[in-house]
Amino acid sequence: MRWKLCLLVHRRLRRELEHIELASQHRGSGRRAAGRRGSGRRCQWLVIEVTAFLITVFPLQRTPLADDIMASKRIDISTLQLKMDERDDEGLDSSESEWPYWQEYRFAVRDIVTIHVETIDKAKIEPGAFHTSLDEVSEDLLQFSKAVFDCSGRIKAKVACSGTQVWGAELNKTDAKFAYIKDIIVSPQYRRQGVGRWAIDALLQHQALEDCPWIFTWATSLNLPGKPAGGANARQNAAIAFFRKQGFRRVGGTWFFGYARDGGHPSRALPIEGDAEATQTAGARGFTERKYEELARAVGVKW
C-alpha cells in the first residue's frame, strides 16, 4: 500500500507537469509562455522532491523506479567547496606521528562527495627502506611502491622503459613529496552531474597538496554505482576513462596512473588515445631488473 501511494502521487504529479508543459507550447508567447515554462521546470523538481520524500519516509522495497527518483537530486556545482579534515592515527601533527613521512587526508563536501588521500615525504624515509616504510602505514601504498619503485624509492627501469615512457628520473628526487588517491566516493543521488570531475579538479588545486608535484592513483579507487553490464572489466574501464580525462596517464605498464603538476611534463602532452595499456604481468621469463636497466640505457630512457 505504501509503495502504491508513492507511485500514485508520482504519476499524478507527472500528469500535472505534462499538462503545464503542453499548455506552454500552445498558449501565449513572450513573457507569459516563459513564465509557464519556468513553472514547468519548478513542477518537474517538485515531482522528484515530493516522491523522494515519500520514499524516504516509508521503508520501501528498492525498485528501479525508486532508484531513478532518488538518484535525481539536482545540485549546483558552482556552489560547492571542497573542505579538508587532516587525520592520522591519533590526531597528532605529522611531525609527532610514529610515521613522520606519512599523512592522511579526508576531503569532503557534506554528504555529496568524499576523497581519501595519503601523502608521502620521501625526504623523511631512511635510505633503502622505502618499501618497508610504506608497508607500515598502508597496504595500498605498499602495492603502489613495489609496482613502481625499488627499495630506495627510485623508479624501476622496467617501469621507465615500458608503456609510453613518459615517467622517469624526475620521480627519483629524494626531497620530493607525492600524493596517492585511495578512493573517491560520490553519493548515489548526486552522480552523473559532473561532481566527480569537479572534485578531482578541486583536489588538484587544494593548497594541502600544492607541495606534491605528482599525484598517483589506482583506477579502481573510483567508487562507481551498481553492477555494469560488462562486469568488473567495464567498471575498471570506466574508472580509467574518468582519470584519463582528468589528465592522469598510466605509469609505465603498471595498473597505476599519475598526474604531473608541471604542464611541461611529457605526460601532459600525451593524448588520451595515446596512453598505454597495462602490461604489468607481461615480460620474458628471467628478464631481470638489471636487463631492464641495460634496455633502458640502450633506448636512452632516464630513470
UniProtKB/TrEMBL annotation:
Organism: Hericium alpestre
Pfam families xrefs: Acetyltransf_7
Lineage: Eukaryota, Fungi, Dikarya, Basidiomycota, Agaricomycotina
Protein's name in the database: N-acetyltransferase domain-containing protein
GO molecular function ontology, one term from the record: acyltransferase activity, transferring groups other than amino-acyl groups
Gene3D superfamilies cross-referenced by the UniProt entry: 3.40.630.30
Domain N-acetyltransferase: 115-273
SUPFAM superfamilies in alphabetical order: Acyl-CoA N-acyltransferases (Nat)
